[in-house]
């Protein structure tokens, strides 16, 4: 398999605490200079302490790494895979330095965030720039994959399984991370609202593929000042509205998350489930892709595709639904955040 010009794959993720002593320093990393109210930090810290001070995210990434290495071996790909996080050990900077020491010149980066937003797109590209500043290595962020069959497929399979087991009249609620409405407006470029449009497209695709009778999109994990508008409805409010409108059973599908992060196991499996129990709603949560073989194969396919693009060859760019396959290079004004003007990797010269 021709993977030139790449000589490594870098798995790029958020990072999370692994023990109680990590929790506060991790939260300080995440919120550095971001003005998250202290109240919210204490509350988020409690979510982690409830699970022994350990986030599931690092172990999930270790599983994904192992699955990727097996998939590469089975497909005759002899490319090293590295791992680096934004907010916790192993940090991106260490991964970049290790790659450079190992002689890697050009790495393709797979980010564990499928959609466009400052948090899921530009902030990672800022992190990649900072990690390689002064390090002789070039990084290329692989395209957003929210509408790739390897992402939509596992969600459709999981949702169909849950819907098939559920009583008639079950409503499917798709859930993602809430973000400030201003961040949504800037996602994909000024006024594009790519974040919400991408989620709506995935929700419609998965609902159709799973044979859902009715479906909607809701949000979890809101933070920040209550005076700043964030995307709504919150999942808990939404469950109450559904119940009031006569719904008796829901399947909850966390399409905003590639695996069972803290948001999924706390905000949905713990808090959302409790809300549903109090309302007397049947509540089942569908699986995230995790290390699903089709999701793992997608990472390889995105790498092979981008390598061909970099060599100037024409190639297939699989996508589902009405939105086109996402760009390789982001428009120069993609996912801007008025509070940040840091340099980034992966920008085109032209605006959206
Ligand atoms: C869009 C989006 C994703 C999905 C895309 C992606 O996957 O990247 C995501 C993922 C994640 N967010 C995570 C954790 C946190 N996010 C926070 C804060 C924030 N997230 C935001 C957005 C997103 N976040 C925003 C606009 C904020 C507030 C401002 C800011 O600070 O930027 C805070 C601070 C406290 C709080 O405000 O809740 C924490 C602790 C974890 C780790 C979970 C684990 O440990 O398993 C993961 C995967
Ligand atoms: Fe977050």
UniProtKB/TrEMBL annotation:
Cellular component terms per the entry's GO annotation: cytoplasm
Keyword GTP-binding: no
Catalysed reaction equations from the record: Fe-coproporphyrin III + 2 H(+) = coproporphyrin III + Fe(2+)
Binding site for Fe-coproporphyrin III: 55, 124
Pathway recorded for this protein: Porphyrin-containing compound metabolism; protoheme biosynthesis
Entry's localization field: Cytoplasm
Molecular function in Gene Ontology: ferrochelatase activity; metal ion binding
Record key words, sorted: Cytoplasm, Heme biosynthesis, Iron, Lyase, Metal-binding, Porphyrin biosynthesis
EC number(s) on file: 4.99.1.9
InterPro entries documented for this protein: Ferrochelatase, Ferrochelatase_C, Ferrochelatase_N
Positions annotated to bind Fe(2+): 177, 263
Domain of life from the UniProt record: Bacteria
Example GO biological process: heme biosynthetic process
UniProt-listed NCBIfam families: hemH, PRK00035.2-1
Assigned protein family: Belongs to the ferrochelatase family.
Functional description taken from the UniProt entry: Involved in coproporphyrin-dependent heme b biosynthesis. Catalyzes the insertion of ferrous iron into coproporphyrin III to form Fe-coproporphyrin III.
Name assigned to this protein: Coproporphyrin III ferrochelatase
Phylogenetic placement of the source organism: Bacteria, Bacillati, Actinomycetota, Actinomycetes, Propionibacteriales
């Amino acid at each position: 398999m021709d993977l030139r010009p790449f000589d490594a794959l870098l798995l790029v993720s958020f990072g999370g605490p692994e023990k109680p002593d990590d929790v506060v320093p991790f939260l300080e990393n995440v919120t550095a200079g971001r003005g998250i109210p202290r109240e919210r930090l204490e509350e988020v810290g409690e979510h982690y302490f409830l699970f022994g001070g350990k986030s599931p995210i690092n172990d999930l990434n270790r599983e994904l790494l192992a699955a990727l290495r097996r998939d590469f071996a089975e497909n005759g790909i002899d490319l090293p895979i590295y791992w680096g996080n934004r907010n916790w050990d192993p940090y991106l900077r260490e991964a970049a330095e290790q790659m450079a020491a190992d002689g890697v010149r050009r790495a393709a980066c797979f980010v564990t965030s499928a959609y466009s937003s400052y948090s899921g797109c530009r902030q990672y590209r800022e992190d990649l720039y900072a990690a390689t500043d002064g390090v002789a290595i070039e990084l290329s962020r692989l395209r957003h994959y929210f509408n790739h069959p390897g992402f939509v497929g596992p969600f459709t399979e999981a949702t169909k399984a849950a819907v098939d087991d559920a009583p008639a009249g079950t409503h499917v609620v798709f859930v993602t991370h809430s973000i400030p409405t201003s961040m949504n407006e800037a996602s994909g470029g000024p006024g594009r609202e790519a974040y919400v449009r991408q989620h709506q497209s995935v929700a419609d695709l998965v609902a159709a593929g799973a044979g859902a009778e009715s479906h909607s999109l809701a949000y979890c994990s809101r933070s920040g000042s209550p005076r700043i508008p964030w995307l709504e409805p919150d999942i808990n409010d939404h469950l109450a509205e559904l119940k009031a409108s006569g719904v008796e059973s829901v399947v909850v599908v966390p399409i905003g998350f590639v695996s069972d992060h803290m948001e999924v196991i706390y905000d949905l499996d713990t808090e959302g489930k409790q809300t549903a129990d109090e309302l007397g709603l049947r509540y089942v949560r569908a699986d995230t892709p995790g290390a699903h073989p089709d999701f793992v194969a997608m990472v390889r396919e995105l790498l092979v595709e981008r390598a061909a693009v970099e060599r100037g060859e024409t190639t297939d760019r699989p996508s589902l639904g009405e939105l086109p396959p996402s760009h390789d290079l982001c428009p120069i004004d993609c996912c801007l955040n008025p509070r940040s003007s840091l340099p980034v990797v992966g920008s085109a010269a032209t605006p959206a």
